[in-house]
Amino acid sequence: MIKRYYELPLKPSNFFSKKEHDTCDIKQSIAHYIHLINTSSFGECGFDETFGCSIWELDFDNLKSSNKLRTLVKTSLEDSLKNHEKRLTNIVVETKIKQEEILNNETLNRIKKRVDIVVKARVKKTNEDFKYIEFFYIGPLSYY
Hints:
- The protein is of the alpha+beta class.
- The chain is built from three helices and five strands.
- It has a single domain, classed as Roll (Nuclear Transport Factor 2, Chain: A), CATH 3.10.450.40.
């Protein structure tokens, strides 16, 4: 039995007009869900206050060391994935924090902290290895 997973972003109009919605495989669906967890702040989801990640809480925190920020993000994301992404097992999160120069134009440069996230796990249903890589700039949060 092949289960269909919907591609993000969802297009509710397709459901109401009985049009087909774009679908994806289980690994892409899990990747979309991890991105949703990463970009949601705690308390943002009305029916589950624990859904999200602490990246938002650290967005303008310039007082914590990079090691402390790395540990907070890693622990927060691991906990959220273990609680909310039930399709994965053996979840390991790796994080790195580094400063990067952002070129806005030829005369204006900004230094931002970059959070690199790597999630390694196993997909329960298929027993396949899973790897997810994403990065964010914090202060303020942005992603590409």
